[in-house]
Amino acid sequence: MCNTTCNEKGISLVEVSIALFLLSLGVLGLISLQPSAWRLSGKSDFLGRASGVLLAQLQATEAKIMNPNISLPAGTSTATATVYAGGQSTAKTGDVAFTVTTTTEDPGVVGMGSNIWRVTVQVTWPGSTVQGIKESLTVARQESFRQ
pTM for this structure? Predict the structure, then answer.
């Protein structure tokens, strides 16, 4: 009796088959997640670049409004421009064109006082299924910015 139990060594063909089957299921599961990972990676790249473009536009518009020497149009003004994430005037390799819409509302429209403006910037890009990203900012004129 001891001879039969002591002579069993190694792995049987059934155990190897089960291990290979489970391994192949795991690999197929990982492969099925790959397209979703690529799509989300691309979306995050667009969002990161768009947020940089949005921040730059908000800062430029804020600096323009804060300077009392620069005249601003009355009422609500909207400007749309195409901006490249690389910051160049033309597209470079791998660059994407973002559409930037900047809306500036003067104090009479906003109802906040004579020295305060509301700036809204919206950035969209080709292939975005939503309306891009949008941010608003309230800006006041600053006498210390007078040049």
Answer: 0.69
